Amino acid sequence: MHTLVRRYIKTGIAFLVIGLLIGLWILVQREVGRTWPSPYQVSAHTHAILVGFVMMMIQGVALWLFPRPEKDDARYDPRLASAAYWCMTVGTALRLAGELARIASQAPALRVAVVIGGALQVAGIAIFFYTMWSRVRAVGSAAREAKGERF
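^ that's the sequence the OP posted. Answer follows.
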């Protein structure tokens, strides 16, 4: 498992911990404090779990398990996979911080931060799948299917 894969997976686990803590905060607030959570808390919790954890894990595992790029593959570039990682990480962190800060303040700068964070998340996902597209191909299974094996 190479460095970038470990970085994706460990960052995903960090976002899972953050997302679970925000979820616990929401649960205690609702059940003990008898107040409904702010939509900003729910959005921060959702983005920490779904984008920060699930997408980062999917990307890390895909980077690790998908067939290596062909030697003449110009589309796959490890620098793009690294750029996608940084867009996802910075975008998700910015979005979480902005959403949670909006509970206490409606400052226009926070709205801008949330939008920039969301745009970085989208860019990270798009860059990742653009560069990984050529690695989504048959390798061993195609030969086994040609011999009549069914999956």
